[in-house]
Each structure stands twice: as structure tokens, then as C-alpha cells.
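Problem 12. The chain below contains 341 residues. Write out its predicted structure in C-alpha cell notation.
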Amino acid sequence: MPFPAFFRFFSDDLAIDLGTANTLVFSRNGGIVVREPSVVVINKLTNKIEAVGNEAKEMLGRTPGNIEPVRPMKDGVIADFEITEKMLNHFIKKAHGGKRWVRPRIVIGVPSQITPVEKRAVRDSAEQAGASEVYLVEQAMMAAIGAGLPITEPSGNMIVDIGGGTTDVAVISLAGAVFSRSLKIAGNELDEAIITFLKKEHNLLIGERTAEQVKVEVGSADKLDEELTLEIKGRDLIKGVPRTLTVTDAEVREALAGPIRAIIDVIRQALERTPPELSADIMDKGIVLTGGGALIRNLDKRLRDETGLPVIRADDPLSTVVLGTGQLLQDMDFLRKVSLH
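Solution.
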């Protein structure tokens, strides 16, 4: 049952972008209050949580056998219910300055093709973590709101949200998705592609933190004006000893070619299935890129070349989904209209 208006005014409602790579929490009163990796470190002997978020990510690849880092989210949905609940509980408490008695209403962004079982898991996790009410909304819709697109108007808006576990592509008009598709190829898949490439081409094994560093510092989707290089450390798979290697942007581009091609193909598919009137709107307004993947160098240029359409990167791609979700906290009627049932 909704809270009376008096309590709503003082409420500590939260919007959460529960991502595969990172979790962001937006408080109605304080803006973005949590921005941390979706990682939890568990002590397997005691079954206790040793660290969550930033502290846990620092331990990746550096823990003894009895201490295990876990990513409870996979491909944008919950892979480990119990650990997700504990992680959410930690972030909710952190958002409220450690207060335990608060039972906020929570809005959570989820991939567009989430199954009823996955929806139930997200709802249950949030309720177990202390939510009084839980609303689920599509990430692409939230990204469009966060990017400032006029989604309630009868015109086509195309959004491509490239997160850690999923890429969500949607064409939105009159606050509804005309086309939406969730692809399980995104930031983590790009990291994996770099690990696989270096193993195959250089017999060098690197960890996921190094792979992410390579993607961020020298990754690109199209040829760069100036060559970039990065010195990395890993383990030589033949000699079994540590080794240093300098990688170039051209090599990393080759490594990322497959996943980036898959993302572009889904965008083209969305354009092919969009009604002609809305296609004309998209031609004028362009495609809006959000999510961490939007930061890959020259991805906007590559998309422009491939589609012939304008491509705009959102002002703050990493925060767009949670900012859009946060805006819904101000308008409960609209939230009920766009939330998934």
C-alpha cells in the first residue's frame, strides 16, 4: 500500500542501477550517493562477507584460497540471490548513512528482456534488503529519461545503453518501447575478448582488472588519429613466469572487433524494424549512446559511418540510467505507468 503523502515528503526513496559491473544508488534527497563495483568478497570458511564494492574490487585476483571474490550479477540479472541481497543491503545502508530503520521505496533498472523468474529474483532481493515497495523499470527507458530525451512525445527516440553485462537497444515513443532488445554482449564481454586475444596472440595471461585497464586506456572501435600503447604485466603461459608486454590500440581494436560488430548488428536490426515515421525522427535526432561502453573511443564515429545517422554520446554515460531512474522518484504516477508488472 502506498505511503501517505506526509511520509512521502520525508521518505528516503532510492533509485538503483543494479549493474553487472557497477551498482549506482540515487537518493531522492542527495543525488548519486553510491557508485561502486558489483563485487562481494566472501570468506568460504566462515561464509561471512569480508568486503563489498570498491574494497572488494581491490582484492580481485589477489585473494588466498579461502577468500573468494564473487560477482553476484551476470548478464544484467541476478546469478546469486543470497549475495545480491547482502550487497544491496550494504549499499542501501550506505546510502542512508548506516541507518537501519529506514524502509525506502526502491526503483531498479533491469534489462528489457528480463524473464518473470529474473524479475521475481530482483524484487525479492530488494525486499529482503529492506525495501518497502519495489518498482522495476527497463534500463533503456531510464537511460532515455536520464539523457533528457522527450520520451512522452509521439516521436521516435533511439537509445543504446552499453553496460557491463548487457547492451540494451530501444526505440521509444509515447513513453513506450516500440522496439527493445537486450544483448548479453557488453563491457564484460569486451574484457574477456582482450584476455582471450592476449592468450592466443602473445601467450600472456592477464586478470580481469588488467583487461579492463587495457579497454579503458587503449580500446577503440575505429582507427585513431594517434597510436596508443600501454605496458601491461601478466604471466607467460609457456615459461610460467611474470612478463611485461606493450600492447597497441590496433591490437586491442582487433580483439574487440567481434563483440563490437555484434552490438552494431543489433542497432542495425532495431533500425530495420522501426516504423518509417519514427525512423524519420531518429534521422533528425540521431542515436543516443549511454553506459560505460559509450566511452569506447570512436564508437560514435564507427556507428555514424555504419548507419549514416547522427550519434550522440550522453553527457554522463555512466550515470544516465540511475539519473533517469532517480527522476521517476519525483513522479509516482509516471513511475507506475512505465514500471514492469
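Discussion. The first strand starts at residue 14 and ends at 18. Students who got a different answer should revisit the alignment rule from Section 12.3.
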